[in-house]
User: Fold these one by one.
Assistant:
Number 1:
Amino acid sequence: MLKENSETVQAVMADIGERAKAAAIDLRKTSAEQKDRALNEMADAIWNKRADLLAANAIDVKCGRETGLSTAFLDRLTLDEGRIRAMTDGLREIAKMDDPVGTVIAEWERPNGLKIERVRTPLGVIGVIFESRPNVTADAGALCLKSGNAVILRGGSDSFHSSRAIHGCLSEGLSAAGLSEDSIQIVPTTDRAAVGEMLKGLNGAIDVIVPRGGKGLVGRVQSDARVPVFSHLEGICHVYVDKSANVGMATQIVCNAKLRRTGICGSAETLLIDRAGASTLLNPIVEALKNAGCEVRGDAEIQESVSGVIPVEEEDWYTEYLDAIISVKLVDGVSAAASHIAKYGSGHTESIVAEDEAVVESFFAEVDSAILLHNASTQFADGGEFGMGAEIGIATGKMHARGPVGIEQLTSFKYRVRGTGQIRP
Amino acid sequence: MLKENSETVQAVMADIGERAKAAAIDLRKTSAEQKDRALNEMADAIWNKRADLLAANAIDVKCGRETGLSTAFLDRLTLDEGRIRAMTDGLREIAKMDDPVGTVIAEWERPNGLKIERVRTPLGVIGVIFESRPNVTADAGALCLKSGNAVILRGGSDSFHSSRAIHGCLSEGLSAAGLSEDSIQIVPTTDRAAVGEMLKGLNGAIDVIVPRGGKGLVGRVQSDARVPVFSHLEGICHVYVDKSANVGMATQIVCNAKLRRTGICGSAETLLIDRAGASTLLNPIVEALKNAGCEVRGDAEIQESVSGVIPVEEEDWYTEYLDAIISVKLVDGVSAAASHIAKYGSGHTESIVAEDEAVVESFFAEVDSAILLHNASTQFADGGEFGMGAEIGIATGKMHARGPVGIEQLTSFKYRVRGTGQIRP
């Protein structure tokens, strides 16, 4: 580990930035075959060195236990053979995907004969700042390489040894395929000043930052970064059940949206029920939630209709519980639901359960979140579920990337214009 | 005009931001017909009030003369009936274009039956900061409205009366079509603090800033803005003439690229000639430039081959002359040209003149600028010439919008997912 001295950190980070920029120029010209070969070599290296990875991970887990990390945190941190296998499967899947670079997104011809093509290019250098999950090292490294970008990874101090061990295997794979090891670099220090340097962009080297972690990390990145950021601060996802909904379907979708996994950003936090349908919808849905072990919070109106409901506070509507808790409210139809979502939501993912198509179209038009679903669970908010193969994260900004950020979203584009001697009159 | 007091300015700007945000929510649901009606009503209002516009403009021009503005600046500032007609023609053209909002950009179905659509949505609120040209008021206002965005316009103090008069006509058009006048607002003060407030984003109200003006303005916006910016700092455009080029075509393209209009961002500043073809290419091209009144700068090698060449300094390669001056250099083939462009260019627009297709493909692959042309003049770097109808500017950033920024680039997107009760396993 480096001597933790801010001048040293600055110099080390500037050097990492320069090397990433040079690697990015080479990657722009690298063939799909070579990138895919590197990805498969990385998977081989990880599998062959799984004993070393488990040993490195054991050091992190032991430190984590000693410093009193939570069980959930330790679970995210811990590797086992199954998780290592999942990592290598992920790398091989990404290798099989189509290369986005060079794809012609649009083409047209002008009356003067100029042929214009809009073609995908890599973004350049991606900075990924993550916390506990060591597998992000492999996932993010692979997605960036596949999309032709160089990447600078900065993992959390708790997963320092695990991430470094995985990174070693990625370097091996790059080398074996004849690619520069600077294509995927990992910050060799846990000094927080390194993050500050990345947020300033390393003298223009970093094109975009992707933070992967809790609200604290993402909030800091969003407020301090001087380069574009692909991120979501939180996922306060809503399910709106319209009076035209099928009660059985609504119950299934709400329970799945809330409870399938409560700790992910696509889990529902608030249930909005159409007042005009409350007499048939409210009881069965809330009872099903309670029976599945979910705490239900609601105002006086909800408490009068169903037993065992805990009083809701204004604060609840703004809260991403990440737990088996849901807040419930009656609203006057789809427009009132849209207003509630606009006020309290985080622009991530919302679902409507309804049979009335006109109501669905209103929902789709009035709600401005990255992902809107009809008659489906909010837990589908995921790049894999969208068929993008894998995602580096989910973005709620409106610029460039929105929703799941897969390899396509990690590209930019340029124009190729072919003429036959045209000059402008 | 407002009392120019920073607290007042802050309050006024915050109010403008809030009203723009509210207008943007309404615009999301506004039909194409209503927006187009407003655009045509604006054109009518401008034409009917052309006498008032000319009177307001005369005040600005008189002030400008008195304060000693340059002839070029006064020319950009001055309106006449022809320019007013061009403005109204522009508005009617934009009205005729297809509405980008609601367009399905991509759609696919998942094995579980979920139907996913990526659909264009407005970005929200655009801030446009411009200098002397009063017609930007109408152009930018119209492009933002067409793409469903609210806009906050901040014109230069020199065109204050002209811009306000044009803005009055835009408000009339919005009203006549039943749209909120807050859809297109103009900052009612020339206090520079207003620009500072816009760059901070007006409490999250502004989604993107578009600066229109010289390098000083754009540089300030790029360095100080805390929101995304669509812009280019300068257009240091290159023409590379390969040994395989047709001499006649190369001469025509170079002269057009440099001299058709020297003051626009797409005019060429540097000519790179393949050393292997210099004996046949250099003389005719440089002589043609000189005969057309262009000053030619080159190093000793160039000066030995052609007469009347002025010595070039290192600084020249970084310079956007915006004048009838060109710097010329011999390079060893397309890769050396690409390296020169990477070092000195601004990522805007570059052209290659060549008959050898393999060389052209290398150029397209190795050069990472927004617009690359083959056998065509760099002066085609323009949204209108690209068939986008009109542009609000040209962007050299890699995020979201790159190259000409037309109405499509002023949109974001969201996902609409249609299910039949799917829950995630």
Number 2:
Amino acid sequence: MFRKILFPTDFSEGAMRAIQRFNRDNESEVKECVILHVIDEGKLEDMLNGYSYFYKKEEREMHDIEEKLKEKAMKEMQERAEKCKEMMKAKNIKMLVRVGIPYEEIVKVAEEENVSLILMPSHGTQGFSHELFGSTTMRVLKKTKKPVLIIKTHKEE
Amino acid sequence: MFRKILFPTDFSEGAMRAIQRFNRDNESEVKECVILHVIDEGKLEDMLNGYSYFYKKEEREMHDIEEKLKEKAMKEMQERAEKCKEMMKAKNIKMLVRVGIPYEEIVKVAEEENVSLILMPSHGTQGFSHELFGSTTMRVLKKTKKPVLIIKTHKEE
């Protein structure tokens, strides 16, 4: 049994395929699974620039958009939570939404939650199949001290 | 329970630390563990050049050295087999010695044996701690379609 698994997800097809493969190959139960979604602060700034016509004060703007995105992410997570729990054979599920640079938040949460494993898809949301790895996955791999299970999420040839 | 794990080992300290960490974090049993040692054909050629004073025929030379290295590797493996079995909580152990390019053989054996996971230390025998990853680990990660569990084997700061 794995004590505690961190599953960072961008809700992409790749991330869900990673869980499917984990499920196919792992017959043991997981005590706790921490599902983490990181709202990319870089993308948040891009959105800010897009929405700035409708707002007067920049701070207010930032706060509003952040809150809306967090709410949306939490909703998406809750919709997937039961499926994740079942697929991972996890006894408990914890859901987290953070704002920041994705790989930094993943590494931080892994330490804070003292997980025994980080489950990463080889490719995330960008899905550039010509790339060898998603850049977030590569950065997490370099920075964390925790074991990382990389699941290939390319479609089989 | 993991069905079948491939554990490529160069008998280095890093590789043994990877097993220790795997053991610490994983409470489930492993049905079968395939321990693989690859004799690097590049290094074999280097040795050939070194020993060529003592031999007349190059083919004979190659064959002799290869046989001796295989024998030595198998012996080292047998010495570690019981410890690996115990640490991995593995029901069965299979030992393989191959000659070739390490990452290529690892990827090949993973397919041939249809393993459910490849367990790789982040750093192998070279132990250049300034490097982010061992080159064999990096190449396996890029080439295989199997899930890869990367265990950080740097000494904790």
